[in-house]
Amino acid sequence: MIDKELLKNLDTEDKNRLIETLDTLISQTYSVEEEYKALRNSYETLQAIIAQIIESLPHAIWIRQEDGEIFLQNSSAKNLNQILEHYTFSGKEEIELQSRIYLVSSTKSNDKILITATDITDQKRSERLASMGQVAAHLAHEIRNPIGSISILSSTLLKKVPTPQKPIVLEIKKAIFRVERIIKSTLLFTKGIQPKQTLFPLSALQEEIEEAFENYGYTKEIDLEIDFEERMLWGDLDTLSIVMQNFLYNAIDAIEESEEEHGRISFAYAQDHNYDKIIVKDSGIPIQDPSILYEPFKTTKTKGHGLGLALSLEIIKAHDGKITLLSPEKGFVISIKKDPK
Fold this sequence. Notes:
By secondary structure, the chain is α+β, with helices and mostly antiparallel strands. The chain folds into 4 domains: 1-56; 58-119, 3-Layer(aba) Sandwich (Profilin-like); 122-191; 193-341, 2-Layer Sandwich (Heat Shock Protein 90), CATH 3.30.565.10. Helix content is 50%, strand content 23%. A 5-stranded antiparallel β-sheet has the order 2-1-5-4-3. It has a 5-stranded mixed β-sheet with strand order 7-9-10-12-11, with helices on one face. It is elongated.
């Protein structure tokens, strides 16, 4: 505060000079305040832009202070904060979390650490599948010739053995049929799907399903019901037959693993404006892990190689179709794109 006695002793000129000085000081104070507000607005705008940029990036991003406190993060990072518990901050690391694989790296600038986590699950899966596919294709080629010879010999043997032994040879033929199917599926999966689509009767697909049912080994009593209409289907009969066989065999295996001694499998036809649909249902055990249904070489079954549904999905995608899991009933809807003409 200004001393009142001092003001009394000032002459008019000094008072006027003091008032001018105070006016200037007040004006400068207001000016500084406005500049501060403008600078703060610019800072907040810049911070918002940076936050939007970080949010738009496809990676999980954290900006962390040296004391470990998170200064800034995007929404992807918020869902993956557990990664920071496993990261050692020693360069690039691959960390697996919630069945996904992330490449995590960090850089330091002043007192801040920028951490990024990139989902490389699909890349790692592709690399793994490429390696497994090469091995599987090689094995399939090596096995195909001797299996073909055994198949021919078993057919010859079936004609010559006495009637009491014929069931044994038939079981051999069923086992060979299963191996041949695995070889065909493996080679088809590793080479890629290129369907040759034509119009064919739906009854041809029914015949393929019935033949596969007769040639597949099982121990329980199973009823197979096929309710197909008399109509034409647009697609590749050979590859679609593989799809139906795969779903049939999965259903049989599920029934074999159930506690019930009697099982039921049904194939039914339906359609909408865009798709012909095959609906497959069975009374076997529930699907244990839907997340790996279409994961190649992974299976929760005691029988199987993990290629059936993965190959089926690739075949249906090649037909511009889709496969949908039914709920709560156990089954699938296989949708095949209709004839574009």
